[in-house]
Amino acid sequence: MNSFNDVFEEVLKYCYRLTGSDVPNDKRISESGYRMWIQVLKPYKMENNVAYLLAKSDFVKQQTMTAYGDVLNKAFEEVMGFPIKVDIMVSGDDEPEEKKEIRIEDTELSDEADVYTFDNFIRGSSNSLAYAFCNAVAEKYDDKNAEQIDPDKVFNPLIIYGDSGLGKTHLMKAIEYKVSKNHPELKIIYTTGEAFINELVKALEFKDTVNFHEKYRNADLLLIDDIQIIAGKERMQDEFFHTFNELYNARKQIVLTSDILPSKMTKLQDRISTRLSLGVQADVQAPDFETRMAIINRKAELLQLKLSDNVVRLIAEKLKTNIRQLEGTVKKIKALTVYTNESPSISMAQRVIKEIIISNQPSEITVDRIISEVANAFDVTADDIRSNHRHSKISIARKITIYILKEVKGMTYTQIGDALNKNHSTMTIHYRDVSNLLKSNKEMKDTVDDIIKNLKEK
Hints:
The chain folds into four domains: 3-106, GMP Synthetase, Chain A, domain 3 (2-Layer Sandwich); 128-283, 3-Layer(aba) Sandwich (Rossmann fold); 289-358, Helicase, Ruva Protein, domain 3, CATH 1.10.8; 367-457, Chromosomal Replication Initiator Protein Dnaa, Chain: A (Orthogonal Bundle). The two termini are 32 Å apart. The strands form two sheets. It has a five-stranded parallel sheet with strand order 5-6-7-4-8, sandwiched between helices. It has a three-stranded mixed sheet with strand order 1-2-3. Helix 3 (58-80) links the parallel strand 2 and strand 3 (85-90). The chain is built from 20 helices and eight strands. Helices cover 54% and strands 9% of the residues. It has 458 residues and is α/β, with parallel strands linked by helices. Residues 154-288 form the AAA+ ATPase domain.
């Protein structure tokens, strides 16, 4: 695997994030533009702080450089940590011979670096129980035919919960990898809560729920990451409830991850919470210092990167709560050593750590982000909130938006009225209504607290 490919993958992820609805309009790019002009590019080489990409025609090159040249330059700088100039070259269908001579063969990584397995999962006191449960689920399929497997004997459903970036997805993917490798005949589905929702929305839009049901309700092993996202979305919860029942009654294994204990999801239907309590729940916590050092050393080994003990200790001391940040730091140091010919050093590590910390700071809380978060929580649209519709659900969402704009953004009533195209004289009334409501309605207070928490953490 060419390491420049890894860099370009991160660049694509950065660009795709700019298509999100929470990105300010002046920085946002359209999803169609991303797919038509950016995603079609191919990585070629990097020399002297210039990233060379390949386009299929002069037209694609010109359109991409004109519309997205600055975006690509910024994306490479964000990934690499220093200024990069992007140059797009035109290629034919066949790879040029000269390209083959400048492949960075000596920076190839082990395939294991990109595969989530139980072998490359670093265990510690913070995750040992979750690891044991997940491994047991995967091992119960060994030396058995599908008809012989009894999920009731091993943790069904299994729920792993904990903060983001602590290894929940790694454990899920490790189950998928091991079972699919040993039992390719089984129908294994790994997805995320967001993907599950998006698939259902599409199925409803095209009146094609039959295929959606066929896919999920006939799985032998269903793994859903970040299931908490369905909380508060009634139609999605109904669908998940019936899917869960079909699989559970058919004695099929279900594995879920969540950022909090399911019983603490205030907007999760009681019937779903009850079903989830039928199995086993295990948490993952932030790794201790020794585990963090082991994670850094293992990632460096997979990337064929030699780090001194001092560099490893520095990273472990500065980044304490997120495994992804640890691994991302090691990957960025590897990229720097390849493209600058520098050896890993304390100063390099400090620079990368600073960039990692800054890049993981919550995004600016804009008016659009607040409206989007409230709209998602109340299952309405941003346009609904800005509209004059008086439907009760839209009306309360609009009032909650006003409250949060005042509490979180500190906006004046005049500014709030202008942002929502409303008469500012009514903003005071709506704010007071919500303030009083939250004192007497615990469920609504929990919902508002969740919205504010999401805004501050993203």
